[in-house]
UniProtKB/TrEMBL annotation:
<dbReference type="GO" id="GO:0016706">
    <property type="term" value="F:2-oxoglutarate-dependent dioxygenase activity"/>
</dbReference>
<dbReference type="Pfam" id="PF05721">
    <property type="entry name" value="PhyH"/>
</dbReference>
<keyword id="KW-0223">Dioxygenase</keyword>
<protein>
    <submittedName>
        <fullName>Phytanoyl-CoA dioxygenase family protein</fullName>
    </submittedName>
</protein>
<dbReference type="GO" id="GO:0005506">
    <property type="term" value="F:iron ion binding"/>
</dbReference>
<keyword id="KW-0560">Oxidoreductase</keyword>
<dbReference type="InterPro" id="IPR008775">
    <property type="entry name" value="Phytyl_CoA_dOase-like"/>
</dbReference>
Length: 275
């Protein structure tokens, strides 16, 4: 028991200091195979629940670029089970120190392989909270589940350690391709160091990062796809703040509430609650 408590404390301390943490493999190969198959079904427009993902989901007519589908858990039960996995919720509670964790929303992500392309296909440097300022505080965390082995060659995520302590910066564009231009124009604290860490992981591993942690990813220059589910989570005490850039976020519409209301209810299912 003492060893487990020590490990948990070390884990939460690393996250507190660096703004990210990588878990060991949580998803076995059999489940990964099912997840990959259900991902293809969603992309093919086969929604087993009869409900489509959030408006603007990827369709084949959009071409073979980066595919991003919000709230795939509405459409598919296998993906829903992952997006609401209590183990992921418990880890998020440990890292944030929260008593309860709820689903904010999910993003099904597919970065196609293209060995002949040496540029493009990037996800620009950004902080998730820049898009989520409808939450009164940055009490949010993302669990990024790798469906494939990921490394710099196929565009793994990169995160800047300790950047979650820098506040909300002037660098936030998920779709920007010129990441070096972003970096040069970034208004970071004078005593800070911008040194991204590649989040190389095996399939089935899960990374966690703070809503203010700067992150992005380069192109997939291999012949195989890079598949994942980003499970965006919020603590149980996260409340709505009206009048921000985030008022255009889909979660405000899902809440249908007033300034100061909790992001709770059926639209934000609970993954974990501490006894």
């Amino acid at each position: 028991m003492g060893t487990n408590c020590c490990r948990r404390r070390q884990t939460s301390l690393f996250y507190e200091q660096n703004g990210y943490w990588i878990a060991p493999q949580l998803i076995d190969e059999a489940r990964l195979e099912r997840l990959r198959a259900h991902m293809e079904r969603v992309f093919a427009g086969q929604f087993e629940t009869g409900r489509a993902p959030f408006d603007g989901y990827w369709t084949p007519e959009q071409g073979n670029g980066l595919r991003k589908t919000d709230n795939s858990h509405w459409a598919d039960l296998e993906l829903r089970a992952l997006a609401t996995d209590p183990v992921i919720g418990e880890i998020a509670a440990l890292l944030t120190g929260a008593d309860a964790i709820r689903l904010w929303h999910d993003q099904l992500l597919f970065k196609p392989g293209n060995p002949d392309r040496r540029a493009g296909g990037n996800v620009g440097w950004h902080q998730d909270y820049a898009y989520w300022q409808c939450a009164a505080e940055p009490t949010l965390i993302t669990a990024w589940v790798a469906f494939d082995d990921v490394n710099p060659d196929n565009g793994c995520m990169q995160v800047v350690p300790r950047s979650h302590r820098w506040g909300l910066l002037n660098v936030n564009d998920f779709f920007e391709q010129d990441m070096e231009k972003q970096r040069q124009g970034m208004d970071i604290p004078e005593d800070a160091s911008f040194e991204p860490v590649p989040m190389a992981m095996k399939a089935g591993q899960v990374s966690f990062h703070h809503a203010l942690a700067i992150h992005g990813s380069g192109p997939n220059t291999t012949s195989r796809p890079r598949r994942s589910l980003a499970v965006h989570l919020t603590t149980g005490d996260t409340r709505y703040r009206a009048g921000t850039r985030g008022d255009g976020h889909m979660n405000v519409g899902l809440l249908g509430g007033r300034d100061g209301d909790l992001f709770a209810g059926e639209a934000f299912p609970e993954l974990f609650r501490r006894n």
